[in-house]
Amino acid sequence: MRANVFLGPGKVEVQRVPDPQLLNARDAIIRVTATTICGSDLHLYNGFMPGMQKGDILGHEFMGEVVEVGKGVNNLKPGDRVVVPFCIACGNCESCAMGMFACCENSNPTGWIPEKLMGHATCGCFGYSHLTGGFAGGQAEYVRVPFADFGPLKVPSHLSDKQVLFLSDILPTAFMGAEFCEINPKKVIAVFGAGPVGQLAIASARALGAEKIIAVDRVPYRLKMAVDKAGATDVINYEDYPLHESLLDLTAGRGPDAIIECVGLEAHSTGLQYVVDKTKQKLKLAMDRPIAVRDAILGCRSGGIVSILGVYAGFVDKFPLGSLMNRGLTIRTGQCHVHRYQTRLLDMIEKGTIDASFVATHEMNLDDTPKGYEMFMTKQDDVQKIILRA
Amino acid sequence: MAVAWERDLLGNARMIKIRHVLYTVGGASAVALGVFAIRRVRHAISHVSPVTATVTVNRPPREVYELLRDFSRLPEFMTYLDKVEESGEESTWTAKLPVFGNVMWKARIVDDQPGRLIAWESASGGRVRVSGRVTFETAPGRDSTEVRVEMKLGESRARARIAAAWAVKGDLRRLKCVLETGEVLRSDASAHVKPHAAQPATDAMAAPDFFIPHVANVDKGAVS
After folding, report:
1. pTM of the model
2. What spatial distance separates the first Cα and last Cα of chain B, rounded to whole Å?
3. Chain A: closest CA distance from residue B184 (Å)
4. How far apart are CA A293 and CA A319, in angstroms?
5. Fewest C-beta in 10 Å: which of A18, A207, A384, B118?
6. With a CB-CB cutoff of 8 Å, which residues 169-188 of chain B face chain A?
7. Which residues of A touch B217 (CB under 8 A)?
């Protein structure tokens, strides 16, 4: 089959690789009908995530048609149309029983690697380095899906791919980030980063009843989409206006009640600290650039909530612990527990209370995936989400 | 840079350069430090014994006990264990180790408390001397089990102890996976002995037995 393979920082290629086979009884093989490039794929692409190996198949957001099931899978049959959560969960361990599916204790066979870096193992994910299990990803014609009796969500045929594909990752991720904020109409929510996850976080905050939502980014077309399509009421372009002062200005000095950070470890900002952070990361003195988290902590109102959705890999520098502690902030974060939100969000999509399809701006053939990475990376042609078709 | 004088055997005065003194002192300290470091490392290694490892399994103690007490099933999740045959009091254990090759030893159970504890020791006179115990306790406030393994590996080399500690930890992780999900989960990378990219391989199911635990629940014939 054809698959998009990681060759080294800044280099991916569509290659012919062996077809996947069933390796466990609870496996299914899915023929991928639509997949995407995620913002977090860019962290891999740019070489910021440890544990990548030449030849790894990328991609963790995908949907498709079941072609084969192992004998432990009773709820799926060949021909079923399914959306697959990016995080792999067994449904049997204590974390799964608590609904913390992205902390599954059994889905990461290479769990000893993150144990060294993070103190405990993480769950397994598709196409996301050997830290998360070393599973081949979804930017391919076929994927093997472990614990297929638990993860994949069957989707009805009257909903289009664009409407349901993002149930795999960015929609539940964004929704979880908004849910963390305990939204009610009185609360002012700021969303840092107006990429695909940021857009859907705004849409989710709106669906949960927020009336004032501030979008923060530096790319004009993204801020425009945040207002036109996602439902933001205010925008701040931090390259034109100072971020902190603007947040205070828009909230009459209080600061937003909650901030959803949708940026991650390659954050940008203006000023000297950005240069320092970038240099440190280049020299491998720091793994992440925690700029957006810093700004979110300093900007959030006292007693407020900082919801971190951006991906971080390791240890950070200049973390404003003093502000966090003295002002009684709450931090909520995590890889998305996709399984927790699947049916609820599918229901909302069917009823029309949320629609994620507006973030899909481009469609390409799987063969053009490297071009897609380049395009997403450099934000050409007002790109948000690229859908790849095998 | 003349700073010190001494007399040689014939009584002639001779100059000692401070550089030489510094070299001597420096060299001696380096050797001392080296010796000290080696001793520290040896000390640390010798204290790896006994090998201990723990895991929490989301199943009741009785069930965890039953799987571990059924010695024939241990190779399902114990990486290097090839087979265990029980006959009466004694059991025969065969391991396939990466460097040492096939190793066989006999062991007997010295204490067996269903749902609580299994303790064993190897028969005297064998090449492998190992004794140990595994305990099962209900985890605080829930119906899951805290499994604790403690093993003593005779007078074996430090390397073997470190390898054993590593293997036991992984074995417990896989034991948990078998009990909670039915079998040991494999990934594209983990299904190979050597580092392998996260992409499918035609030989993924043919990986050597000593690395891939036997998968009891999968009918290999059904896999294309």
Report:
1. 0.88
2. 82
3. 8
4. 8
5. A18
6. 169-170, 173, 176-177, 180-188
7. 25, 72
* Of residues A222, A181, A154, A216, the one with CA closest to residue A329: A181
What is the distance between the alpha carbons of residues B74 and B82, in angstroms, rounded to a whole number? 9
Which residue, A226, A197, A182, is CA-closest to A311? Answer: A197
End-to-end CA distance of chain A: 10
Instruction: Give the amino acid at B93.
Output: W
d(Cα B71, Cα B66) in Å, to the nearest integer? 9
Nearest one of A318, A329, A354 to A259, comparing CA atoms: A329
B170–A135 C-beta distance less than 8 A:
no
Q: Where are the alpha helices (DSSP H) in chain A?
A: 39-45, 94-97, 112-118, 161-164, 170-179, 196-207, 220-225, 243-250, 272-282, 291-299, 321-326, 338-351, 369-378
Mapped onto helix, strand or coil, the DSSP state of residue A296 is: helix
Residues pairing with B145 in the sheet: B57, B138
Of B182, B190, B200, the CB nearest to A21: B200
Q: Taking Cα atoms as reference points, which of A12, A49, A115, A116 lies closest to residue A281? A: A49
Distances (CA, A) of A71 to B50, B182, B187, B205, B221: 41, 12, 18, 16, 12
Q: Is A32 exposed, middle or buried (0-12, 13-18, 19+ CB in 10 A)?
A: buried
Positive or negative torsion for Cα A28, A32, A38, A40: positive
Q: Which residue has the tokens 């840092």?
A: A192
Which tokens in the block code for residue B91? 């059991």
List pLDDT tens digits, range B168-185. Answer: 889 999 999 999 999 999
pLDDT 10s digits, A133-153: 999 999 999 999 999 999 999
Among candidate residues A16, A8, A38, the one with its CA nearest the CA of residue A388: A38
Q: Exposed (0-12), middle (13-18) or buried (19+): which is A177, by Cβ within 10 Å? A: buried
Q: Which band of pLDDT confidence, cut at 50, 70 and 90, is reported for residue A344?
A: very high
Contacts of B187 (CB under 8 A, 6+ apart): A109, A110, A124, A133, A134, A135, A146, B198
Across A20-24, A129-133, B190-194, B207-211, least confident range: B207-211
Distance CA A247, CA A225 (A): 20
